[in-house]
Amino acid sequence: MSRVLIIGGGASGMFAAIWAARNGHSVSLYEKNEKAGKKLFITGKGRCNLTNDCDIDTLFSSVVSNSRFLYSSFYGFTNQDVIDFFENIGVPVKTERGGRVFPASDHSSDVIKGLLREMERLKVKVHFHAEVKEAETRDGSFYRLVLSDGRKIEGDACIVATGGLSYPSTGSTGDGLRFGEKMGHTAVPCLPSLVPIEVKEPWVQELMGLSLKNVKAAVFDGRKKLFEDFGEMLFTHYGVSGPLILSASSYIGKKLSGKARSGETLGLSIDLKPALDMEALDRRVLRDFEENQNRQFKNSLGKLFPAKLIPVMTELSGISPEKKVNVISKEERAQFVKLIKHFPMTLTRLRDYDEAVITKGGIRTKEIDPGTMESRLIKGVYFVGEVLDLDGLTGGFNLQIAWSTAYAAGNHIA
Questions:
Q1: 185: which of 77, 86, 367, 377 lies 20 to 30 Å off by Cα?
Q2: Which helix (H) or strand (E) holds 341?
Q3: Residue 115, class by beta-carbon neighbours within 10 Å (0-12 exposed, 13-18 middle, 19+ buried)?
Q4: Which of 393, 388, 375 is CA-nearest to residue 63?
Q5: Residue 325, C-beta contacts closer than 8 angstroms, at least 6 positions apart
Q6: pLDDT tens-digit series, residues 93-103
Q7: Calpha distance 350→314 (Å, rounded)
């Protein structure tokens, strides 16, 4: 039996503790907060999107950074395994649109309670208000943890499950990155990811609270397309958010952050009517104009857009709001159709970590054994979950990374 010490009581820390204990090890978990699972509690808007019930190819394609590293762990503990695990510990689940899997109760607290019950059953020792200050090594192997109160706890293995930098109020303050760097690991520079984005145009404030469904977004650096996808977005007082924009941030975050430092920007183009090509949309607009031919332009757009969007579209069209529809020229209509297909905004910067679902960056995966999650540099040290340079899209994929990497570590401690 080995004495396993786990730093962090989030999703990956609790899960690693369970599997290490199921394998007969003596497990102690150290959490600096007053309770476990603080970030897990707020995920999925408090409902906890546990995983995604998709095929394995979709699982891999939904990981943005270093998906190949997860080959062993995803096959070792699949999304179906996650569903079975929670059902077996008394947390029934349900699957919703887009394959998203939630606890049947819609309460993330039930997920946390289920994990805590299982840890208690397995006699995992959980220590709260226990902040780890150092993870010390000796002769190339893990030696002990040093807590902020001065206690020194020796162990045979250490699992670092401290999370990244997102939602720092939950305790994710980069401790694991610091531990890893002190051991000689490389920390890939971090950025907020799955995060809203700020927009330059002042009129965006007029659209605050407006949600657009079934639109297509594309992000450009000059003429080069960096991202394109279809879905739902939301306007805020500072810019744009919603699932489509959060996904975009995963792909363009590094480029946008680099440009923001030099005062440059990226272009965002929204296709408001992606189901119609230019010709079909022109016929649609013409039909609406014919039905409203004696009305003012600003009063003819009710079937095309939500009310909140009409003043902005009118302004950007260059057509006078008071102009009668029956005198709008073919050229003006063509420009208006183009605007609908390419509604432009200017992206300036990512929002901060306190609004980011996850962190991009972390401990370099090349320095970790993908089959076991053990450090290639220090024997007996394992890294799991968000502390690693792994990140996925919204929809349960990041928690799948947490469960799969934690399972790998918990099952491979010597």
A1: 77
A2: helix 330-341
A3: buried
A4: 393
A5: 289, 292, 293, 294, 295, 296, 297, 300
A6: 999 999 999 99
A7: 28
**Residue showing tokens 């029934």:** 92
Domains of the chain: 3-192+360-411 (3.50.50.60), 196-351 (1.10.8.50)
Do 362 and 17 meet the contact criterion of CB atoms below 8 Å apart? no
CB burial of 17-31 (b: ≥16 within 10 Å; e: otherwise) equals bbbbbeeebbbbbbb
Look at residue 45 in the predicted model and tell me its pLDDT: 87
Kindly tell me the sign of the dihedral angle through the C-alpha atoms of 114, 26, 365, 39: positive
Q: Which amino acid is at 270?
A: I
Phi, psi of 393 (to 5 degrees): -80, 175
> Cβ distance 183 to 377 under 8 Å?
yes
What is the C-alpha to C-alpha distance for residues 13 and 35, in angstroms, rounded to an integer? 13
For 312-360, how does the pLDDT look when each residue is reduced to its tens digit (9 = 90+)? Answer: 999 999 999 999 999 999 999 999 999 999 999 999 999 999 999 999 9
pLDDT tens-digit profile of 273-304? 999 999 999 999 999 999 988 899 999 999 99
- Torsion on CA atoms 344, 349, 352, 355, rounded to nearest 10: 10
pLDDT per residue as tens digits for the range 152-181: 999 999 999 999 998 888 888 899 999 999
| CA distances to 42, 59, 64, 69 from 80, in Å | 23, 11, 21, 20
Q: What is the pLDDT of residue 25?
A: 98
φ and ψ at residue 164, rounded to 5 degrees: -105, -125
Rounded (to 5) percent helix, strand, coil in the chain: 40, 30, 30
198 beta partners:
239, 349
Residue-wise pLDDT for 61-93, tens only, equals 999 999 999 999 999 999 999 999 999 999 999
Among residues 99, 104, 66, 106, the alpha carbon closest in space to that of 80 is found at 99
Q: Give dist(CA 10, CA 48) in Å, integer.
A: 13
C-alpha–C-alpha distance, residues 154 and 3, integer Å? 8
Which residue reads 């927009």 in tokens? 199
